[in-house]
Amino acid sequence: MLEKNRIKKVEKIWDNYIDINQKVFDTKGNELPNINESRLVAIEKLKVYINAFSKGESDISEFKTSIDSFNKRNNLWGFTATKGQMFFNQLVKSSEHNIDALTSLLKQSIAEPKDLQDALVKIDSLEKYCMGIFSKAKDKRKVPNPGSVGYFLSYFWQIHDNEMWPILYTSLTNAYLELEIWDAKPNQKETYEYFFNLNEEIKKVLKEYTKQEITNWDAEHAFWNFKGNPNKPKEKIKEPVIAAVKDEPKLSINASFDITDYLIPKIAKLVELGGDSKKSASAKGSEYEKMVAEVFKLLGFEGEIFGQGTGRNPDAIVKFREEHTAFIVDAKAYNEGYVMGRDDRAMREYISNFCPKLRKDGFTKIGFIIVSNSFKTDLNEFANDITWNTDIKRFILLSSEALLYYLAYKTKDDKITLPIIIESLISIGTVITAQNVIEAFDDI
């Protein structure tokens, strides 16, 4: 399959990997120290969730939640991105009327295949199931994309046997495409078959070249180091790195694109504005509040803007009527990180005044979002209190940079719709940073 000149390129890719002391970076450029050891530990825990689901000890919703929660804490395979957890979420949501059939199919599909031909049968079955949903959907962005099936299933198979099953990463196929050794196939079954065999040949080439055994992970890491320079630092907005809570370690935030390419210049200055120490607090606050509200409108929300000078009101109420969802938004332009102080009383007043009006207007899912450059605490006590004792279903601390990344991804990819963004907002956790958004939406 591989011609001599392509073999030389594969060998060069390996040499470059060895030259960096076999360091492993994710597709955002962040080093993953001891990734193989970490994966082996993680696999044992993931097998517990998989076995519980396969034996009927947990239902599909519990299984989905367990996998989601675990991968957010241990993002070692990129499953938090669109072809992993988002695909899983959409698959379950689209099958609410047929959940027993999906459960049965999924149990069969994620079980370890007997051999490659059995793997292809499993891929074909799930792909056809997804096509049945996809072909009938009015908005295809809201349903599981059949093109994600190969990655999704091979992830679970690698948990069963990492030496047998390579994962169908987009970053790897992009690398093969660049080397001119990749041919696009019409469906996921043929795609995985070609990928599997090509991966085996690459391992064989490298085994002959190095005189040592080459694993799926060895090949994966070497090509991760090569493709698209995922490890090359991307130009970022010039700003302090967002810290979700006080003393949180700084994160290296690298998307696969330059965020400023997808934002209008005025909006791109949101973080800079929030940290501006030259303007008066009043002037800066008013401008920041308006800009935050503008970003929510660009995301597709229907916006009702209040802000300074309108009395005891939040800065905005943003609504998505189609899904009966609304958020009370308060924007805080704090230089040193937001801390609640005496805002507690005002926020409770906003909730008391606006939740009844929103519910009367048909909004059954109401959340509260505070937007600021950074946060000194996670406000867990306050969040727990209002979600337990009021109509607020979700309390969110959203960094300015994270808000901009939501807008950039939506602008860049029309498959990322407002319902998908809302799903992300309510599922990530109380604190949402730019890193969370990148991990959720950047391709793997």
Q: Which key terms come to mind for this protein?
A:
444 residues; 6-stranded mixed β-sheet; 6 strands; 53% helix
Adjacency order of strands in the biggest sheet: 1-2-3-4-5-6
Sheet with the most strands, sense and barrel status: 6 strands, mixed
Q: Estimate the global geometry from the Cα principal axes.
A: globular
Mean pLDDT: 87
The radius of gyration is 23 Å
End-to-end Cα distance: 25 Å
- The proportion of residues forming helix, as a percent range, comes to 40-55%
Q: In what range is the share of β-strand residues?
A: 5-15%
| Secondary-structure element string | HHHHHHHHHHHHHEEEHEHEHHEH
Poorly predicted parts: 228-253
User: Treating each run of at least 4 consecutive H or I residues as one helix, how many helices?
Assistant: 18
- What structural class should be given to the helix and strand makeup? alpha/beta
- Total strands: 6
